[in-house]
Specification:
globular, 314 residues, mainly alpha
């Protein structure tokens, strides 16, 4: 488990440090950053799949209409999430962006109820209500709904909902999403280059950072994919708050964004909801393990008794 734990922590720490990376590209438009993030992510994933010799699935996926429809929607949601996030970071909304990722687990719960007819346990229902009160309070405090946070939470929540019903692994699915986005990306980057608006080109730091946007995006994903297979879901759920916590601290301590006590109160409601949700998730996971162990123990005793009875008859 230690290896999976380290991989998960590494993924979330890297995601938490993303604002520092995108701020270094402040002179580049959000759309151009998005284009290079998609293009170089595909280049990086192509290298990974080539090393694994794992390309045979792609032709089958491209011929499957259902798979293509799911990943076409998923890729559009992911691109929208990336665009909003980069724009928000580079326009001074790092703190509000962190709120979006703090809220994401609760939004995912809500989407599960609406689209998958999942039933909430009482404590989960309470956590969603508390989070809704927090959003309502922040709407009052900001003087507007926290649109950036809501856009990030819902685009990523819907992205998770789409990929939940998909058949491909995380690595293959992410690669297919980048393949689907490749054509519009190349056309857009080609237009920027042809019109002289592109910031990419020449031996400079901006060009290097744009090219490295691919591995910077993909490496945390690979770490997370490795971790998710080897540590409990409840632990994954708890660790995911590392990223928005780091983002929040960066917004306050590094970029000195406004975070008055009145705004802190709204965040506190969201955090209370998350703590309640995490506690319920951990408790339910522990109860499930205990029930499984109890069932296995009962089966073992039953088998031992049967063997004993058979031996007695013999």
């Amino acid at each position: 488990m230690n290896r999976g734990l380290y991989a998960a922590v590494g993924a979330y720490v890297l995601w938490g440090l993303f604002p520092l990376y995108w701020k270094a590209l402040l002179t580049v438009s959000s759309m151009e950053i998005l284009g290079h993030r998609i293009f170089w992510s595909l280049v990086f994933m192509a290298g990974v799949l080539s090393l694994r010799r794992d390309w045979s699935w792609l032709r089958l996926a491209l011929r499957d209409g259902r798979v293509l429809r799911i990943y076409a929607v998923a890729s559009a949601l992911l691109a929208a999430n990336w665009l909003v996030y980069v724009w928000a970071v580079n326009n001074g909304f790092v703190i509000e962006s962190s709120l979006g990722y703090f809220s994401n687990p609760l939004v995912s719960v809500l989407l599960g109820v609406v689209f998958l007819r999942e039933r909430l346990r009482p404590m989960q229902t309470t956590s969603v209500i508390i989070a809704a009160l927090g959003v309502a309070y922040l709407t009052f405090e900001y003087g507007r709904p926290p649109w950036i946070a809501l856009a990030l939470a819902f685009t990523f929540g819907l992205y998770g909902l789409m990929t939940k019903t998909a058949s491909l692994s995380a690595v293959r699915g992410f690669t297919l999403e980048m393949v689907i986005l490749l054509l519009p990306t190349v056309l857009f980057l080609g237009y920027l280059g042809g019109s002289g608006q592109a910031q990419f080109g020449g031996l400079n730091g901006v060009t290097l950072l744009l090219a490295l946007a691919g591995p910077v995006t993909a490496i945390p994903l690979l770490l997370f994919g490795s971790a998710a297979r080897s540590i409990p879901l409840s632990m994954v759920g708890f660790l995911q708050y590392i990223a928005p916590t780091i983002q929040l601290l960066i917004g306050v301590l590094v970029y000195h964004e406004a975070f008055p006590p009145s705004r802190l109160a709204g965040f506190a409601l969201i955090w209370a909801a998350l703590l309640l949700y995490s506690y319920d998730l951990a408790r339910n996971s522990r109860n499930s393990r205990q029930q499984k162990l109890s069932a296995e123990s009962t089966r073992t005793l039953s088998t031992d008794y049967t063997d004993f009875a058979d031996n007695t008859k013999a």
